[in-house]
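Hypothesis: this fold can be encoded by more than one sequence.
Test: take the structure tokens below, design a sequence, compare later.
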């Protein structure tokens, strides 16, 4: 991937609402080259989606999010791919990562309640033949996501004490 496309990606990652015109101006590139680069990256599936980062704690529609460590036995001939695909096809599953370390997959799941997530783990995820074990961690609060800090620090509000 050329340097021009990487710069376009960085600018879109910072703010996906930036127009091709603004990006062209910021990079000092012709508009048609920036539009062509974006179109190529969308076609090549480098740019997959334009999505906002939402601070759900500010919305009445609360969601419960859990991270689940999953140990699995790889399938002969397919390794982790087939099992990962079975897992990511569930609508509750938002993200699946292949990991190094003590577990194989890290799965992010969303539900309306703790019981929804617990039910998913016990009735769907843990019943997959290749799944050896799961460990579930519920997210209590998000401070930062995708480089964006959710709560602005108001600074130190204590009164100064002098001797």
């Amino acid at each position: 991937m050329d340097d021009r496309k990487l710069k376009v990606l960085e600018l879109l990652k910072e703010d996906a609402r930036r127009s091709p015109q603004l990006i062209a101006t910021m990079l000092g590139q012709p508009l048609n080259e920036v539009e062509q680069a974006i179109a190529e990256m969308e076609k090549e599936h480098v740019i997959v989606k334009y999505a906002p980062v939402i601070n759900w704690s500010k919305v009445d529609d609360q969601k419960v999010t859990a991270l689940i460590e999953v140990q699995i036995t790889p399938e002969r001939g397919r390794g982790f791919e087939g099992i990962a695909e079975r897992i990511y096809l569930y609508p509750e599953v938002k993200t699946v990562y292949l990991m190094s370390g003590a577990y194989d997959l890290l799965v992010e799941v969303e539900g309306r309640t703790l019981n929804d997530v617990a039910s998913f783990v016990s009735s769907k995820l843990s019943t997959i033949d290749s799944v050896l074990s799961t460990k579930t961690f519920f997210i209590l609060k998000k401070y930062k996501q995708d480089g964006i800090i959710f709560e602005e620090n108001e600074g130190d509000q204590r009164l100064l004490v002098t001797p």
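The chain has a mean pLDDT of 91. The two ends are 62 Å apart (CA to CA).
Hypothesis status: open.
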